[in-house]
């Protein structure tokens, strides 16, 4: 009896493992490949927070002039229901004014400070020209008007139904559904984005990233459908940089900072999987890794066959791609969205 059960189990497990491997390498046998209208190797985080005032028209213009493939930005909603481009819900870090964006009308928003900390380069400050126009917090509509054909990656920062609705209204008004990606770390916000408009490219929430990794390492991923089109993940080993040991008052991804280095390396090995990225690519899902600012990181991650890298230093990444042609083969392919 026991032998028969063991044989049945082994036969089942062997068949499962075989099918999982086949579908991992050939996912289109079961799933339709997503048809994304652009491919981005070079992504400017907040427009390039290490080279210009973050999330400003000046930053976006200069990143596009350099040749970035995509702009990444963050959205908030003002008291008078204007969608603005700003990372923090509270203005103190960026402007010195201890007010929430939701408490102020758009015309009441203060200018950004002349110097700003770079979240993903701890201990480093961006010191700009101080020109007032360069420090103005822009409307999302302005960004769409200035860059009608540039892919834009929108991080919806607040769990606000009206914010999601207004961002979607602007996306559709400017005919950007095919060249916009949106979502959030928050599962709740991301689900609201998808419910509002399933035709816009969608980010994985943090919950769905964890689910993705669990499915991958149990061999179940090839059997499951995926609604998201873009995976954005961080490289855990970037938190091993000496700079992350600097005692600053603010650090993005602070949950990783005090982890033992061995544990960070283990998480890095699990998350930075070339085989996973190849599987997603075959399903038409693009992978972006953030926020990388140094050449050794660029090389490590491009070697994993990710779609693109997000950086605070657009010029630095562009120079790297220009001098390493083996990594710069993928260029934007923008479909006619008219």
Automatic annotation (TrEMBL):
It holds the Pfam family GDPD. Keywords: Hydrolase, Lipid metabolism, Membrane, Transmembrane, Transmembrane helix. One of its GO terms (cellular component) is endoplasmic reticulum membrane. It is found in: Membrane. One of its GO terms (molecular function) is phosphoric diester hydrolase activity. The chain crosses the membrane at residues 6-24, 209-226, 257-277. CDD domains: GDPD_GDE4. It comes from the Eukaryota. GO terms for biological process: glycerophospholipid catabolic process. Residues 40-321 form the GP-PDE domain. The keyword Plastid does not apply. It catalyses: 1-O-hexadecyl-sn-glycero-3-phosphocholine + H2O = 1-O-hexadecyl-sn-glycero-3-phosphate + choline + H(+); N-(5Z,8Z,11Z,14Z-eicosatetraenoyl)-1-(9Z-octadecenoyl)-sn-glycero-3-phosphoethanolamine + H2O = N-(5Z,8Z,11Z,14Z-eicosatetraenoyl)-ethanolamine + 1-(9Z-octadecenoyl)-sn-glycero-3-phosphate + H(+); N-hexadecanoyl-1-(9Z-octadecenoyl)-sn-glycero-3-phosphoethanolamine + H2O = N-hexadecanoylethanolamine + 1-(9Z-octadecenoyl)-sn-glycero-3-phosphate + H(+); N,1-di-(9Z-octadecenoyl)-sn-glycero-3-phosphoethanolamine + H2O = N-(9Z-octadecenoyl) ethanolamine + 1-(9Z-octadecenoyl)-sn-glycero-3-phosphate + H(+). Belongs to the glycerophosphoryl diester phosphodiesterase family. This is Putative glycerophosphoryl diester phosphodiesterase. It comes from Rhodnius prolixus (Triatomid bug).
